[in-house]
Structure formats: structure tokens, C-alpha cells
Amino acid sequence: MATCVNLEGGVVRLLVKGAPEKLSVNRMLSADGSIVEFNGDEFEEIRTSYTAKTFRTLGVAYADFTAEEWAQLEADNNGLIELEDRRKIDKDLIFVAMYGIVDPLRPGIKDAVQQHAIAGVRTIMVTGDNLETAKAIAHEAGILTDEDMMHLKNGTLGVAENICMEGKIFQNRTEGYVREKRD
User: What pTM does this model have?
Assistant: First the structure.
């Protein structure tokens, strides 16, 4: 998601928010306000620590343009009306911040997962967000066990791979249909 604001001196600032790993950044705003080279290793370490704590992450970045540059971008990209046109301009951004948002489990979720397991119903986690965050939430909810998490960490996926997945993987595996398998 992006918006533009007109700043003093004829500067147009493009402000962009979204999944931090999806933002196209090459520089970052440091604590003292200077702009420095983007540190991808430090960024990934922080993002991973957030997702392991079940935080949903949100990144904010920006780019500044002169009024003339902005007018030319609009002219060259169909007035920035279509999504694919807008995607062409949110590149080479300056990273500002990453936020970790806690979305706590609703009361009773862990008990419901346990009751379903007792009844023979396997619960899976399908996400449209960050898979690592989904895995941490699935662990907190009791969908993934400590053993599953160890397998995921060691790269020996086992059953865990089929318990927590992205929506597009689920869609591909099921072709949009969930089939019941009876013995």
C-alpha cells in the first residue's frame, strides 16, 4: 500500500507500507537520521526474531521525487492508475522501520485444537501472511508440536510440512477442494 504527500520545496514523497521482505529497498534511515546502505543480514535477523515470537511484521519505506520527476513517472506509467503501473515506482526505497504486531490467540483456541485432535480431526494452518509467523502461531495454538518445530528447524520437515502452509500451496495440493479420505 502506498500514498504520496507533497512536501515543501516541491518534493513528492512516496510512502510505502507492506510485508518487510517484499519492500524493494537499497538504503535505510539510521537512528541519527542519516541515510545508509541497507543491511540485509541485520534486517533478516530482526524480522526472523519477530516472526519467531508470533509477531506479524509490517515495514515502512519511502522515496522522494522532485515534482518534475513525479510528473514524468505518471506520464510514463499510465497515470499510475493500474496496479502494475504503480508497482514500477515502488523500487529503490529507503527503509524506515519494521513493526512487530501481536495478534494474540483468541481464548479457547488451544483447547479447541486439542478437542479436535481427540475427536480425530487434524487441524492445519493455512496462511496468506508470513509462513514463519504462521508456524510460530500454529505452535502456540498446539497445531504444531515441539517435535514438529524441531523438524522444521533442522530441515527434516516430516508431517509438519503438511500442517502449516501458505494458501497457494494448499490451493495447489487440493485443487481448491478438500477431500475426505476414509479407511
Answer: 0.68
> Do residues 47 and 136 share a domain?
no
Q: Give the pLDDT of the chain (183 residues) as one tens digit per residue.
A: 888 899 999 999 999 998 888 888 999 999 999 999 988 888 889 888 888 888 888 999 999 989 998 888 888 877 777 767 667 777 789 999 999 988 888 999 999 999 998 999 888 889 887 888 888 889 999 998 888 888 877 777 666 677 888 888 888 887 766 655 555
- From CA 115, how far away is CA 44, in angstroms rounded? 37
CA–CA distance, 137 with 21 (Å, rounded to integer): 19
Q: Are residues 165 and 97 part of one domain?
A: no
User: For residue 124, what are the domain limits?
Assistant: 109-174
CATH number at residue 37: 3.40.1110.10
Parallel, antiparallel, or unpaired: how do β-strands 25-29 and 93-102 relate?
A: parallel
User: Which of 102, 130, 145 is the last residue in one of the domains?
Assistant: 102
- Cα–Cα dist 63/14, whole Å: 5
Last residue of a domain, one of 102, 133, 154: 102
The answer to whether the CB of 94 falls within 8 A of the CB of 62 is yes
Based on the number of CB atoms within 10 Å of its own CB, is 129 exposed (0-12), middle (13-18) or buried (19 or more)?
middle
